[in-house]
Structures are given as structure tokens and as C-alpha cells.
Amino acid sequence: EAQVTQNPRYLITVTGKKLTVTCSQNMNHEYMSWYRQDPGLGLRQIYYSMNVEVTDKGDVPEGYKVSRKEKRNFPLILESPSPNQTSLYFCASSAETGGLSYEQYFGPGTRLTVT
Amino acid sequence: DAKTTQPTSMDCAEGRAANLPCNHSTISGNEYVYWYRQIHSQGPQYIIHGLKNNETNEMASLIITEDRKSSTLILPHATLRDTAVYYCIVRRSSNTGKLIFGQGTTLQVKP
Fold it and tell me: How much is the pLDDT for A97?
């Protein structure tokens, strides 16, 4: 089954404790992206990757890091989480390339709480 | 990417067709109309997309006006599980791949 998986699904942590949210897709998609969703602000793009070893900032990259060492994985790293990073996070992937537009597939979400 | 306007909320009776409108009067010729939905904090789900012709798949139909300034998503036989927030997004292929989600339409399907 074609899917995007995220782990963990729920996480409660404390300020400053480094964490990683994993994202994996089994569709051989080149494009992957991270969004966060907050009440009243909708979904906002954090980082995206057009291919292996190619990543770039989205609209709200501060406090986050990503890596793309393999096509299927795109982990989101919070080096020093803060309470304002409490949010619902979604990973997405797509066959999209620079010249063509395709639908995006989203993971189930990771609900992160930073105390 | 062009801005879209959708009603904040709509109701639909179970088993009836749900028609969700979207205005995108500033759409450009190379921009597609995409529809996604989000069921209660789950990941957004792709529904359908089109450029200028009407489209139909197993989930829905998309009707785009001839001038492309508006479109309608049709769920032919709405069920309770179709209760969700529906997002109309107008975009072209870009280097960022970013989807701009507006406020969407909250569709409530009632028994």
C-alpha cells in the first residue's frame, strides 16, 4: 500500500531535549516536505526537499533541521525544542518535479507537545 | 499562486450530493485547481485536480467554469465519513512544491 508514515504519532517532551520525527514514503517520490498546523494559522511549510541531498527552507524553518540522505526518508530534527514548537506536524511526498505538478500524499501527523 | 475563496461552512444530508464552491478569479493559465480534505486532524487527503476540463474520479467530480474563475467539487452521495474540512488550492508546479491551505470549507454531513 502506498503510504507516508511518521513516527512517533504523539510526543510530549521538555524544553531543550533534542528530538527527531521520522518520515518515510514507499512511493519512490523525489519530493518531500514538512508542514506544521496550528489553530488559526493553517498549515505552513517548514522545509522541503526536491531530491536526495537537496533541501531548502519553507516559510517557518527556524528551530528545525532536516536531512535527506535517502530518497524514502526525510526526518525532522528539533535540536532544542521550545514550547512554541508545540504543534501538529505533517510530512508529505509527491512525484512533483520542477516542471510538473502532482498530488501530494500526507502522513498521519505527529502531535508534539513541548513543556 | 492564485488566492481562493470558499464558504466557511456547509451542511449536507447523508446520501445527497454535496456541492462545494470555490472562487479563484485571479487564476493564471498554467495554474491547476486542486482539492484536498482533512478529516479531524488527520493528514490532508488529495481528492482531485484539474486544469480546464471537468474531471471525475472514484471520490468526486470537479467542475471548472469556462473562464476558470471558479470551480465546484461534487461529492455525489455524501456519507457521514465525508464530514471534513475541504480545501480548494490553486497552484502551478513550483520549486518549493508548497501547498497554500486557506481556511477551507467545513462540510458537515448530517443523517
Answer: 66
